[in-house]
Structure formats: C-alpha cells, structure tokens
C-alpha cells in the first residue's frame, strides 16, 4: 500500500488494456456556468430509476405534494424512494416511456407543477460528525440516492460494507466526449463535494482516499486541491486523458495497479468506488436534508444554439430542455414513404459512445442521466442514418486491441447473432462495460454494443424466467411435502383415537365387565326382542277355523269392528220375525260374509308377518338403538297400512251385508203381506 501511495505522490500510474482517444468536444460547454431553469409545467417520475426494485407508492391521483416529499417507500433493500422535485398535484399514475435503450414503458407519476416550489419541513444537521453510522445510512437511504455515474446502484448498500477498506476511490474522470457535468459541478460545489467525501470517510474509515480526475479539467483540479489541501488522507490524482479511464475497473487499475477479476467486486480487494456527483448528493442529504431531486445535465451538440450545463429537476422532459437550449430541428435526408412525416433529427441520451438514441422527446430525466446530445449532420452523420451501414467483419482484430475489459468482441458478436447464450456467458459477456470502443474503431461499422445490449437483456430475461420456474418448483415440492405430512398426521391422529377407544372399550368396570361386552349384550337383547316379536306376529300354518291365543287377545281396531258387526247382526236377527226358511237363508248369507272377512283378516296378518320377518333380517347388523327405531318404524308403517286396508274391506263387506239384509227384510215383509191377504 505504501508503494502505491509513493507512486501516486510521484505522479506515476498504471495503465489498463486497450482504450481510445476520440475527439473530446468538451469545450462546447466547459466554459459556461451551470444554469438554473424555470419550473416546467409537468414532471414525469419513473418509480424505478436505479438498479433494483421500485418502491411502494405512498400517494394517489389527486394528492397535493410538497417539494422533497417522499412519493414511494422502500420495502426492499434494493429499492430506493423517489421524491417530489417541486410542489404540485399528482394527476396520473400510469405507464410512460422511460430513459432506456429498449424504449419500453414503465410505471410513472405525473405531477402538475403549481409554481410555488413549496418545501416540506427539513431538519438541517449542523455537525454530521456527531451522527452515528446507522443515522447516516438511514439519511442516505431515505434520500433515495443511487450511483449517479451511470449504473445506479443503491448507495446506502454500497457504503454500508465491511470494515478494513484500503482505498475509497472518488471517480471524477468523466472520460466520455462532450460531457462536462461533473467538471462544472466540481468547480462550483467543491466544498460540498468534500463534505460528502468526509461523510463517506466517517462511514468506511478507509486507509486512503483517492480522487481520480483526468488532466483535461484544470479548473476542477485546482478547486479540489484547494478544498482538500488540509487533509493528508485525500489524494487528488491527475490522470492521463484516455477513454474509458472512468470505468470502475479501469480506474482501479490506473490508481492501484490491481485487477478486478471476472465475477468479483472491488470490495473483495478492499476498495469502494463512488462517483463525484454522488458525493455531492450525499452531502446535500445528510447536512441539508435535501433528497435526490435534481442533478447537473450537459445539453450539448452543434444542433443546439445555446449548449450549456443545467440544474435539472428529475422528471423534466427532454423536449423542455431542448426548447430551453435552442434546439435546431434539422431534418435528416433519409428515404421515407410519401405519406409519412420526415424523420426527426437524432437526440442521444448520454455521450456519443455509451449513449442511446431516444425516439420520444417526452422521456424524463432520471438519476443516472448526465447528458443530452443533439448533434448536427456534419458533426455526426452516422446518427442521421436510419439504416445500418454494417458490412461483414474483416477479422482485423482492432476491436480486441481496444477492449478495456480484454474480451473478444468479434466472437461475442457471432454468439450474440446466433443467440448462443451459454457461449456468451463463457466469453464473459457481462464483463463488457458498453464503452463502445470496439464499435468506434470497427472498419465494418458493426454496431457491436447494440448486439451486446440485446444479448444481455435476453439472458437476464431468461434468468428471471428460470428463477421463477425454480421458485414455482420449490413451492410445488413444499406443497406436496405439506400434504403428505398432513395425511400422515391425520392417520396418526385417527390411529391414536382408535387405540384410545379400544382401550376404553376393553377397560373393566366395577362388576368385572367391559364396555364392549355390554354393547354385545345389548345387541343380543335387541335381537332376542325382535325375534320374539316376529314369532308372536306369525300366522298359524293352516288357515283353519280359529285363531291362536295371542290373536284372540289382541285389541286391534279390526277386531273391534268385527265385534260391532256381530253384535249388530245378532240384534237384527232377534228383532226380525221371519219364517224359518228365510232365517236360514239370512244365516247362510251372514256366515258367507263372515268367512270372507276372516279370510281377508288372515291374509293381512300373513302379509304383515312376512314384512316384519324380512325387516328384522335386514337390520340385524345395525347398532342396537338404530335397529330398534328402524324396525318399529317399519312395523308401525306396515301395521297402519294393513289395518287401513282391513278396515276398508270390512266396511265394504258391512255395506254389502246391510244392503242384503234390507233386501231380505223387504222380501220377508212382502211374503207376510201376501200370506195375510191369502188368509
């Protein structure tokens, strides 16, 4: 470590592989101060402006918000909140085009600005050195700060790391052409930036703090040296101008000579890297209680009449910024259909090498936006071509020579076109930093970075699908295991209950018996009772003249009716005065009626006995109580039906006998009258 510091003190640095020296084009905006803009009429705030997950909404449509008010909350460590850049009203929460090469839409908040710029209540910290470690981490997280150099990694996670940090490296290189946002920020806010560095020093306690800045920023270098002259721990390292020296791994190599291998992180080497603009945001958040709601953006390019660095509220639309800087909408001369409008001139978000063209000027500025480039056709003719000038690769190898990550761009491009994701992973595609150096030197004009970006997106999407499939499989296996455990638990519970019941049944009582023997005895008594009842209701074998003793003692409604009929018949026989022959005829008729009635009663009893016997046989396997109730129900139902039928038969026979007696009485009276007349 001492040798590294000695080398730095001597102004000697290491070199990384590859790199290029494109025209800088920084003088367009580097000589002008940062300008403040009037408030726009509307802001569009994407909920996710960083690597990770979006936060949970805290507002609804129609809510009035204050400047600095949190609009989302972090429910996940990889989620950072977004805040209202100014006061206004939430008018919509819907999907809108975001600042991304894909041109896709994401969920956004639409705020109509009220023009009052009213702040929420803030708590100013007079001495941040008295704050605890966790207090500072919480302030950074609540302020929604993410890396402002391009990656957008949540800062509160990056600075809440293990101790024993050797180097805290502040990235102020700003190596890409045209961009001067960090250069002007350092020149105007060097004291606040150094406060942010001191806060990081309090959190991480590194052995040394190295500020890496390219030598093409003399005013910024001077401002940093003056602000840090009383702190021996901070070293301002003036680096040779070379693209992409601002890459994290490349800057580490230049300053320390250490290589960050594929699949590892700088923290594994005891190194933490932070962007210079992020340091300013940390200072604003911890000291002034100002969340990340604005940033410096470079508006540059020959198509702008007033190129300049601007203080821009997050969520400001690109069209508003272009109008403020005098955008000359030069139309390209590419072919178009007769009825289609002429194509718009190109607008690039980011620098000429790592940036991407935006197809909609309503795209908002986000936390990682540092430049809007509007080139003229003379300045960048390739940007005006809506068709590709790509030709076959000539295998010159220049792309591999300039690749700072020491990859094989040619083979990566072949595998990307073939969608061979496994081969791309083996070729370390994700070590590519999208610097664009390979495409810059390619004589075949192959847009290599575009191939890599598409391939990375496809691999990430497939990995997410694989993760979802694995989670679904895990849920299925967990459910299957849970169901098996529940089934086993139920079986064990039932077996235990059965054993308990068996033990209770076999437990001997005071008289020496058991519950099971008592149940068996009860069943035996029920069967005996049913058998006796069935035996009593059986008819005699022969349909003889008389009835059994049990039948004679029954007091059923049928017998009562028969008795009443007999009594009435005897009374009629006594009161009637008729010849002996007539009485004999009447007696024969009554006997015949009596025989038919007796036969009907015998038939009903036989049928009832048969039904009772069948019912008893079918219900012997039931429990004692249910068996008795069911048999009694069947017996009562059958008895009632048979008795009803017998009463009907008796009533019919009675009516017939009564009618016949009336005819006989009339005949007897007529005969008596004739005898008297003859006498």
Describe this structure in words.
By secondary structure, the protein is of the alpha/beta class. It folds into 3 domains: 2-332 and 344-383, Rossmann fold, CATH 3.40.50; 388-506, Fumarate Reductase Iron-sulfur Protein, Chain B, domain 2; 525-678, no CATH class. 46% of the residues lie in helices and 11% in strands. The protein has 19 helices and 16 strands. The protein has helices spanning 2-9, 27-30, 133-142, 155-158, 181-204, 218-227, 248-256, 276-288, 318-324, 398-402, 409-417, 421-426, 437-441, 448-506, 515-536, 549-552, 557-575, 580-618, 624-678; strands at residues 35-36, 42-46, 56-57, 64-65, 72-73, 88-97, 105-113, 167-171, 208-214, 234-239, 271-275, 294-300, 308-313, 348-349, 356-357, 371-373. It has a 6-stranded mixed sheet, with helices on both faces. Strand 6 (88-97) and strand 7 form a beta hairpin. The longest helix is centred in the C-terminal third of the chain and has 59 residues, at 448-506. The radius of gyration is 53 Å and the shape is elongated. The model is unreliable at 332-342, 539-555 and 578-583 (pLDDT under 50).
Determine and state the CATH class of the largest domain.
Alpha Beta
| Overall geometry | elongated
Strand ordering within the main sheet: 1-13-12-16-14-15
- SSE class: alpha/beta
* CATH fold-type name of the largest domain: Rossmann fold
Please tell me the CATH architecture of the largest domain by its name: 3-Layer(aba) Sandwich
Estimate the strand proportion.
Answer: 5-15%
CATH homologous superfamily caption of the largest domain: NADH-ubiquinone oxidoreductase 51kDa subunit
Q: How many structural units, i.e. domains?
A: 3
- What is the average per-residue confidence, as pLDDT, rounded to a whole number? 83
Number of discrete helical segments: 19
């Amino acid at each position: 470590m001492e040798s590294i510091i000695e080398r730095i003190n001597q102004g000697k640095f290491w070199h990384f592989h590859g790199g290029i020296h494109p025209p800088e084009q920084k003088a367009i905006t580097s000589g002008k101060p940062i300008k403040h803009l009037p408030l726009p009429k509307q802001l569009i705030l994407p909920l996710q402006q960083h690597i990770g997950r979006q936060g949970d909404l805290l507002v609804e449509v129609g809510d009035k918000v204050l400047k600095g008010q949190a609009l989302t909350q972090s429910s996940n460590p990889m989620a950072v909140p977004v805040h209202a850049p100014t006061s206004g009203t939430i008018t919509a929460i819907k999907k809108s085009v975001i600042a991304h090469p894909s041109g896709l839409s994401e969920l956004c908040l639409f705020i109509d600005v009220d023009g009052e710029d009213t702040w929420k209540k803030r708590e100013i910290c007079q001495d941040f050195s008295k704050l605890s470690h966790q207090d500072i981490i919480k302030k950074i997280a609540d302020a929604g700060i993410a890396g402002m150099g391009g990656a957008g990694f949540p800062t509160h996670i990056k600075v809440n790391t293990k101790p024993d940090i050797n180097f805290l490296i502040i990235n102020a290189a700003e190596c890409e052409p045209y961009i001067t946002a960090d250069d002007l920020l350092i020149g105007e806010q060097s004291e606040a930036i150094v406060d942010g560095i001191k806060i990081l020093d309090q959190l991480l306690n590194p052995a040394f703090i190295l500020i890496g800045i390219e030598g093409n920023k003399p005013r910024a270098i001077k401002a940093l040296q003056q602000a840090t002259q009383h702190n021996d721990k901070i070293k301002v390292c003036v680096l040779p101008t070379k693209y992409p020296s601002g890459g994290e791994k490349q800057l580490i190599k230049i300053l320390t000579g250490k290589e960050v291998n594929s699949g590892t992180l700088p923290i594994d080497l005891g190194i933490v890297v932070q962007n210079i603009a992020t340091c300013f945001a940390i200072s604003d958040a911890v000291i002034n209680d100002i969340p990340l709601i604005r940033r410096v953006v470079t508006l540059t390019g020959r198509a702008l009449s007033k190129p300049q660095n601007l203080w821009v509220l997050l969520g400001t639309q690109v069209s508003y910024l272009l109008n403020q800087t005098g955008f000359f909408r030069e139309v390209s001369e590419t072919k178009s259909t007769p009825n289609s409008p002429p194509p718009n001139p190109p607008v690039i978000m980011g620098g000429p090498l790592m940036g991407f063209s935006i197809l909609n000027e309503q795209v908002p500025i986000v936390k990682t936006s540092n430049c809007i480039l509007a080139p003229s056709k003379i300045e960048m003719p390739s940007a005006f071509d809506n068709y590709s000038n790509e030709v076959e690769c000539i295998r010159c190898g220049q792309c591999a020579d300039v690749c700072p990550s020491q990859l094989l761009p040619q083979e990566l491009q072949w595998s990307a076109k073939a969608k061979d994701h496994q081969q791309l992973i083996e070729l370390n595609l994700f070590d590519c930093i999208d610097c664009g150096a390979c495409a810059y030197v390619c004589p075949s004009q192959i847009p290599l970075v575009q191939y890599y970006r598409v391939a990375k997106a496809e691999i990430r999407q497939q990995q997410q699908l694989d993760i979802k499939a694995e989670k679904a499989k895990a849920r299925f296996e967990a459910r299957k295991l849970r169901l098996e455990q529940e089934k086993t638990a139920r079986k064990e519970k039932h077996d235990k209950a059965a054993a308990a019941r068996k033990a209770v049944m076999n437990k001997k009582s005071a008289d020496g018996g058991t519950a099971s023997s008592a149940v068996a005895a009860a069943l035996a008594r029920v069967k005996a009772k049913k058998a006796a009842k069935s035996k009593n209701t059986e008819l005699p074998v022969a349909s003889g003249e008389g009835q059994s003793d049990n039948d004679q003692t029954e007091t059923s409604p049928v017998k009562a009716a028969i008795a009443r009929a007999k009594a009435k018949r005897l009374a009629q026989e006594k009161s009637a005065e008729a010849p002996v022959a007539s009485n004999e005829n009447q007696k024969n008729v009554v006997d015949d009626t009596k025989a038919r009635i007796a036969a009907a009663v015998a038939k009903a009893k036989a049928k009832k006995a048969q039904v009772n016997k069948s019912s008893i046989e079918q219900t012997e396997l039931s429990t004692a109580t249910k068996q008795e109730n069911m048999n009694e129900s069947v017996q009562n139902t059958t008895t009632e039906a048979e008795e009803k039928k017998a009463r009907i038969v008796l009533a019919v026979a009675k009516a017939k006998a009564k009618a016949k007696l009336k005819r006989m009485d009339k005949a007897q009276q007529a005969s008596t009258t004739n005898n008297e007349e003859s006498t």
